[in-house]
Amino acid sequence: MSQYTKIVVGTDGSKSSLLAVQRAAAIAAAFDATLIIGCAYYETKEDANKTLRQDSVTVLGNDPAQENLNKAAEAAKEIGATKIETVIKPGTPVEALMAIVTDNDADLLVVGNRGINSLTGRLLGSVPADVARQSNCDVMIVHTVAG
């Protein structure tokens, strides 16, 4: 198994995404790795409405994104992660996560499975499936929702 040094996980503030954060935090603690928690946000309601995919929580504006990151960082600390960074990125969840992975030269991306088995996810793609296809690093899809 690789020695992970930089682990990226996304959050939208949902219970499902916090489960992914907790799993990523446990891995970061085990490897003494840096955990980079990212949150995508839409700058305007019009930007949010342009997306065809509605399988993730829509975060509108960077203030709610920062609140999500604060909550996720606290959850990660409770699990035992000690090196925690947070990043807010405008755009879709896939765009933001891919940018954060690239910008930080991450070696592991952790995402929840929400949307992967939905009809919309099968037809249009889902965040976990899309990042798994696009990522240049290992991707761990955490079982965060049933079905």
TrEMBL record:
Organism: Corynebacterium hindlerae
InterPro entries to which the protein is assigned, alphabetical: Rossmann-like_a/b/a_fold, Universal_stress_UspA, UspA
Name of the protein: Universal stress protein
Domain UspA: 4-143
Keyword Membrane listed: yes
Alphabetized CDD domains for the sequence: USP-like
One Pfam family in the UniProt entry: Usp
Keyword Membrane listed: yes
Stored PANTHER family: STRESS RESPONSE PROTEIN NHAX, UNIVERSAL STRESS PROTEIN UP12
Domain of life: Bacteria
Keywords assigned: Membrane, Transmembrane, Transmembrane helix
Ranges annotated as spanning the membrane: 20-42
Family (UniProt): Belongs to the universal stress protein A family.
